[in-house]
Amino acid sequence: MMIRRKITVLTVIVIIFLTILPVGSSQSNDIGRYKIELLEGWAVIKTDTLNVAIPSDSTIPMFIWWYNNDDSVLYVAKYEGLAEAWLFASETFNHNKLFEDAKGFKNEFIVRAHWHGWIENPSFILKINEALKNLHPFFFSFSQGKWELTPIQEIRAKDGRLVGLAFAFILVDPIDSSFEFAKGNIMIRNKLFFDPVEMQVGNDKVVLSKAELKSDIIISNWKWNYDTFRDTLGELSYDLPEIEPKLVLSAKFNIRSSDENRLADILNEERGNIISDQDNINVKVRVGDRTFVVGKVEEEDDIITINGLPKLEMLTEKGTIVSFFSFTPTATIVYQSDTKSVDVKGVYWATRSLKAFLIYPYFGNGTLLHDPSIGITSPELEGETPKYIFIPPITSKDIVPPPQSIIPIEIVPSFELAMEAIAFVIIVAAVIVITKKTKIEVLNGI
């Protein structure tokens, strides 16, 4: 009878102890993982690590972000537009390869063609003049279009847990009728994860930080001036040196100082391209092992790969926070019956301001998908362990990724392991004690 009672007591102890162990992360409460505040035409997303402001009216695709623990420094990224650039064989891209207008295209194109061995003839000049009537401007400025900001929606993983937010900028009216073909065909889709997420990029595994906003540039049905030009020239185009058309996405960056009372003003100044010396900070740029201050040098070069990703880092004179712009070195082209991967090159240009260019190869009538990121790094965020594996659907244009594409990594927290070890020790000790006492009682009864 005594033995049975002690076994019952032991069972009760074990059950009570197991019930006080912490529940797994998949069962944790989603409440409080984020909040969204509206501030004078801006939506401000706040998480426990990163704050991101996006324009909610008079929308253009831009982001202003800052570390949750330090709102005195704001980081700015603005996508400026798309430009078609033509490179002859052996040429590498720089900003001088961009055509300003039709007249600039004609003059510069002929000069560069001469450099590459082309011999001018009167018939060709007549055809160029004819082609110019059919070409749209070589640069489409995003600020000249009307954009829609989609609702900010929650992202859930396969285990049902809330893991992030998603939203998109979609071009709904290019205004300039020359770019009517771009209506509804340019989307910048964005994801902000609350936990570190692992992604496969080429042969490398890359961790998306919880202090990182990942974008997907999606461009469909682009009307190439290159195609129109060659069609107009007909057989004369065969006399030209080989041309490699590119589509170039340009982005501009800045860093501003701030305080709570100036936040709305700074956001709207950046949206309106208003230059204010009051809040400007010297922007230091780090590319690989090199560091320089924007405005004190004029430099243009390739963005160097760091840990599998080309990355441009921006920082202030003091502090340990580093903001960054990075991108995967490949893009996906989706055709009606096929997909392929193409290389993407990045170039930075530092003068009085800082710009970056992403250079995409010719993709005809396909759809281009490419994913740059912005964010921050700091000593506190280093060594993050990913909690999920993200397998993005290659051809999907859905704004929110499906739950089955975000798979939890089964990791038992160290605290739970410790508590379970303690529980095991207690159970073993209790069994030993009860066994000894039982033996004594049995012996005493003999």
Secondary structure: elements and pairs:
Elements: H1 2-19, E1 35-38, E2 42-46, E3 50-55, E4 62-67, E5 70-88, H2 102-115, H3 122-132, E6 139-141, E7 146-149, E8 153-156, E9 162-173, E10 186-193, E11 197-201, E12 204-208, E13 212-220, H4 225-233, E14 243-257, H5 263-271, E15 284-287, E16 290-293, E17 299-302, E18 305-306, E19 309-315, E20 322-327, E21 330-334, E22 339-343, E23 345-350, E24 354-361, E25 367-370, E26 372-377, E27 388-390, E28 406-408, H6 414-445
Parallel strand pairs: 11-27
Antiparallel strand pairs: 1-2, 2-3, 3-4, 4-5, 5-6, 5-14, 7-9, 8-9, 9-10, 10-13, 11-12, 13-25, 13-26, 14-24, 15-16, 15-19, 17-23, 18-19, 19-20, 20-26, 21-22, 21-25, 23-24, 27-28
Helix pairs in contact: 1-6, 3-4
Report what the structure shows:
The chain is α+β, with helices and mostly antiparallel strands and 446 residues long. The longest helix is centred in the last third of the chain and has 32 residues, at 414-445. The relative contact order is 0.16. It has two domains: 2-22 and 414-445; 44-408, no CATH class. The strands form three sheets. Strands 7, 8, 9, 10, 13, 15, 16, 18, 19, 20, 21, 22, 25 and 26 form a 14-stranded antiparallel sheet that branches. The protein has six helices and 28 strands. Helix 3 (122-132) packs across helix 4. It has helices at 2-19, 102-115, 122-132, 225-233, 263-271, 414-445; strands spanning 35-38, 42-46, 50-55, 62-67, 70-88, 139-141, 146-149, 153-156, 162-173, 186-193, 197-201, 204-208, 212-220, 243-257, 284-287, 290-293, 299-302, 305-306, 309-315, 322-327, 330-334, 339-343, 345-350, 354-361, 367-370, 372-377, 388-390, 406-408.
